[in-house]
Structures are given as C-alpha cells and as structure tokens.
Write a structure and sequence with these properties.
This protein is of the alpha/beta class. It is about 40% helix and about 15% strand. The longest helix is centred in the C-terminal third of the chain and has 22 residues. The structure holds NADP nicotinamide-adenine-dinucleotide phosphate. Homodimer.
C-alpha cells in the first residue's frame, strides 16, 4: 500500500522566510509587530511566544504586551488606539480567545485595518470577498500557499472546506474562490457529510474534533489538508484520522503542517502591512 505524500509546512515556511529575508534586506526600515496578550491561557502563552520568537529570528522588531485577564475592555481599546497612532508600529495582533467580559468584535474592529495582521477587521474581510488588496487571515493564507508550493492547481478543482469559522473556514473559502476553485463549505448542520467530503479533490478540514475524518470520507487520490490542532492527553492530534493516508495522495501532518504556515504568513502580513501603510494598496 502506498501512503499519502506528506506536505510539510516546515519546509514551505522556510522558503517563505527566505523570501521575506530578501525583501527585508532591501527595505530602508525594519517592520515592527506588536502582540497583545490578556491573561495566562497556556495555549495563548505558547502561541504568542512562538510568534515573537519567529519575528525576532527573521529580524523584525517584535514586542509582546501582556495585560491581566481582568483588564477592562475600554483599557484594551485605549491601548489599541495608541498603537494605531504610533508611527513605529506596523502590525498589531491581539491574541484570541479573549476573556469573556471583552467583546472580541469590538476589539477586532478597533485595530486599524492597515495594521490588522490577523486580517479579521471587517474592512479586510470585505476586501477578501470583493477581490481587493488587503490583509487576510494567516491560517487560510498558509493553506493556499502550501498547496501552491506543492504544485496543486486550484483552478476549477472541487474543493471542500469542512468548518465555517471566521478564522479559518470562511476566509479560506474566499481565498479559494479567488483561486478559481469550485468551493463547497460544510459544517455541523450539513447532511450526509461524508458523501459531500468524498466529492473533494482537495479537502481542507478545520473543525477542532480529533480524528473526525475517516478514510471513508475521502475520495481516493484526494489532497487533504488538516488544520485541526487538538490537545489530547498531552499529544497534538489533527482533525483527520491517520488512516486517511491510505487513500489520500497527499496529506499535511499535525504538528508540522498548517501550524508553521500560519506563523510564516503572520510574518509575511507584517511586512505587507509595513509596505501598505507606507505606499498604500496597489490600485
Ligand atoms: P471553530 O471556530 O470551533 O469552528 C469549527 C467549525 O467546525 C464550525 O464551523 C463547526 O460547525 C464545524 N464543526 C464542528 N464539529 C463538527 C462536526 N462534528 N461535523 C461537521 N462540522 C463540525 O474552530 P476554528 O477556529 O475554525 O478551528 C478549527 C480547528 O483548527 C481547531 O482544531 C483549531 O485549533 C485549529 N486551528 C489551527 C490553526 C493552525 O495554525 N494550525 C489555526 C487556527 C485554528 P458550526 O459552524 O455548524 O458550529
């Protein structure tokens, strides 16, 4: 039995970093990233640490601001506004999830669209769907970049996206449409889920349910991207069962697939934000 080819996010992320280093060496300034974290949620602590480390390794100016979990919403909004006005700051990221007393939507709308390196501001969401230039969410960007790197032609392909979150599923559907894919988005209310996922030539799974997708859900020879990161008894598991490697032609590993691409795209967005703010969006 031949097992699916592994699509390594680590490998592709390295090529992104190489290109970014070249761009950075040609700039007369150093782009800067400011990450805000509230509270001590262990996953957020480790994600923020990783983002800061990668940014520094790449030669960006990176700074993390940590606030107590009970920080009032108005205080957070005030800090964001100060960073919006700060000419030294190119990218602002507020690590999610936020404590329950803070309205995430208000926070995301407060970040200047030109500094919105997570791509969650409604203006950037609109640009994604209207075909304009803007800052788009890192994980979906990472998925598309990874597929393109491995020569996966998306034009006209049947692509099924499992999951419809604002962070992954929906923006990914928008990006895939921009690549001329034929996109179907499925979710927890979809009937006959395995029947629909079996139509996919490219299947992207972002549900947050460990090993939900079994081999019967996958069309033989399909390319499968597993976005899921589930901590189960100290291990990281994807949303795709390992047996899928028996039917897919290519599969991303967890960890080491989409995760490294997400961080690489954050770095790319920071450089892009720095350029957009200085030179404006291309017309
Ligand atoms: P989310 O906001 O919880 O959304 C999950 C989506 O999956 C929802 O649309 C939900 O449907 C759907 N869903 C849940 N259970 C389902 C089921 N049994 N059958 C069909 N659909 C189901 O999650 P998210 O933020 O998109 O994240 C998804 C996964 O990706 C998580 O494991 C997360 O940790 C991971 N992730 C990884 C990265 C990375 O860089 N690698 C980045 C972001 C997220 P409804 O809308 O109907 O509820």
């Amino acid at each position: 039995m031949t097992l699916a080819r592994t699509l390594s996010g680590h490998e592709v992320a390295e090529t992104v970093y190489r290109e970014l280093r070249e761009t950075l060496s040609s700039l007369p300034f150093v782009p800067s990233l400011r990450v805000i974290r509230l509270g001590e949620d262990p996953a957020s602590v480790s994600y923020v640490r990783l983002k800061d480390k990668r940014a520094r390794e790449l030669g960006l100016l990176s700074q993390v601001e940590v606030f107590p979990a009970d920080t009032p919403e108005e205080a957070l909004l005030g800090r964001i506004e100060a960073l919006n006005q700060d000419p030294e700051v190119d990218g602002i990221l507020v690590q999610l999830p936020l404590p329950a007393h803070i309205r995430t939507e208000r926070v995301l709308e407060a970040i200047s669209p030109l500094k919105d390196v997570d791509g969650f501001h409604p203006l950037n969401v609109g640009k994604l769907w209207s075909g304009g230039e803007g800052l788009f969410p890192c994980t979906p960007l990472g998925v598309v970049h990874l597929l393109k790197h491995y020569g996966v032609e998306l034009r006209g392909k049947e692509v099924v996206v499992l999951g419809r979150s604002n962070i992954v599923g929906k923006p990914l559907a928008g990006l895939l449409l921009r690549e001329d894919a034929t996109v179907t988005v499925v979710h927890s209310r979809t009937r006959n889920l395995p029947e629909v996922t079996r139509r996919a030539e490219v299947l992207v799974v972002a549900v947050g349910r460990p090993h939900l997708v079994r081999k019967e859900w996958v069309r033989p020879g399909a390319i499968v991207v597993d976005v899921g990161v589930n901590r189960v008894e100290g291990k990281l598991l994807g949303d795709v069962h390992p047996e899928v490697a028996e039917v897919a032609s290519a599969l991303t590993p967890v960890p080491g697939g989409v995760g490294p691409m997400t961080v690489a795209m954050l770095m790319a967005n920071t450089v892009k934000a720095a350029l957009l703010r200085r030179h404006g969006a291309p017309r």
